[in-house]
């Protein structure tokens, strides 16, 4: 049975991509849980640690409203998802990715409170990105590696947009997974991922150190902190998966995208210039593009510039 399935996916790219799209929808539903719950779990851990160090401050520090509105015992798997407004448990048929939101008209089945369109968008985006990875890489280890990176980047993007936070539990695990894949799987002909163990190690180190140096140089010059340590770790994770050679492309794409969108938000929405803008989503998007098309982009630039004939 398993061999037949492998042969089917290996021999039919359309079926493989379609199956991965459906899988991506399900993973996207889980990523919605991660994006919402993980920051609350981390906040509670931090406050508990602070209370142990400063017991007298425990009674004076209140949880933020998102943390107050959820059960005391919270993990990524328990308790069951429920409506934030009426607390009614979400039934299985109400939790079908994208479809349930459309059937329910974007509202809770019990209290009719509006459900954010963001939930189906995350599910749909994860499904489409996953299908794109499957179509691009085909059935095999590179596709499995690229899917892991894609799902982690989606989760990090959502969390950073909401909280300007890139959790170590995702960034560091992603980095170590990249190093492990380089060591166990190693480079595969015609695929940019994973890279050799040497390139992965150099990529992880240079990714972290390069942004660390930029961070401290910016702070010395301006007296302000231009980014967080989570950005260093995410860049290190991308270096572990993509190798050091694609890191200049990643930072160029992320910086250019961040600058353009930042200017547009200031011009069109009147955003305060001093308001911090999370850099993680730009790094994540640039890293995904580099993973998919990095070699072609670099080769095209070298040809246009005349550096390669």
Task: Describe the protein's architecture and organization.
By secondary structure, the chain is mainly alpha-helical. Helices cover 68% and strands 0% of the residues. It is built from 11 helices and no strands. Helix 1 packs across helix 2. Residues 59-65 have low confidence and may be disordered.
Please tag this protein with its features.
single chain; 309 residues; mainly alpha; 11 helices; 68% helix; globular
What's the layout of helices and strands?
Elements: H1 2-11, H2 13-53, H3 65-68, H4 99-103, H5 118-137, H6 141-163, H7 168-184, H8 197-222, H9 229-242, H10 247-269, H11 280-305
Helix pairs in contact: 1-2, 2-5, 2-6, 5-6, 6-7, 6-11, 7-8, 7-9, 8-9, 9-11, 10-11
How many helical elements?
A: 11
Main beta sheet, described? none
Strand content: under 5%
| Unreliable residue stretches | 59-65
The helix content is 55-70%
From the helix content, strand content and strand pairing, which structural class follows? mainly alpha
Dominant shape: globular
End-to-end C-alpha gap:
49 Å
Q: Provide mean pLDDT, rounded.
A: 88
Radius of gyration: 21 Å
- What is the H/E order? HHHHHHHHHHH
Tally of DSSP β-strands: 0
Quick overview of this protein structure:
The chain has 309 residues and is an all-alpha fold. The protein is built from eleven helices and no strands. Helix 5 (118-137) runs antiparallel to helix 6 (141-163).
């Amino acid at each position: 049975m398993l061999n037949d399935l492998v042969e089917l996916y290996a021999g039919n790219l359309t079926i493989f991509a379609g199956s991965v799209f459906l899988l991506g929808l399900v993973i996207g539903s889980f990523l919605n849980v991660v994006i919402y719950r993980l920051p609350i779990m981390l906040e509670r851990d931090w406050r508990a640690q602070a209370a142990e160090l400063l017991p007298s401050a425990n009674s004076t520090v209140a949880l933020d409203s998102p943390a107050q509105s959820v059960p005391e015992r919270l993990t990524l798997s328990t308790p069951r998802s429920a409506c934030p407004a009426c607390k009614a448990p979400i039934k299985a048929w109400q939790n079908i990715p994208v479809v349930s939101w459309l059937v329910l008209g974007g509202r809770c089945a019990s209290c009719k409170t509006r459900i954010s369109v963001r939930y189906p968008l995350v599910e749909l985006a994860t499904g489409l990105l996953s299908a794109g990875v499957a179509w691009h890489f085909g059935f095999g280890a590179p596709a499995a590696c690229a899917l892991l990176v894609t799902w982690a980047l989606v989760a990090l993007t959502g969390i950073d947009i909401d909280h300007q936070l890139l959790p170590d539990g995702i960034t560091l695990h992603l980095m170590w997974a990249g190093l492990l894949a380089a060591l166990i799987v190693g480079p595969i002909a015609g695929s940019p991922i994973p890279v050799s163990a040497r390139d992965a190690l150099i990529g992880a180190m240079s990714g972290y150190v390069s942004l660390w140096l930029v961070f401290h140089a910016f702070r010395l010059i301006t007296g302000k902190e231009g980014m967080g340590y989570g950005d260093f770790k995410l860049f290190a994770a991308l270096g572990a998966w993509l190798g050091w050679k694609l890191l200049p492309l990643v930072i160029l794409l992320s910086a250019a995208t961040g600058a353009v969108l930042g200017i547009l938000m200031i011009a069109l929405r009147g955003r305060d210039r001093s308001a911090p803008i999370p850099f993680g989503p730009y790094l994540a998007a640039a890293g995904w593009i580099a993973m998919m098309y990095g070699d072609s982009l670099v080769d095209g630039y070298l040809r246009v510039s005349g550096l390669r004939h």
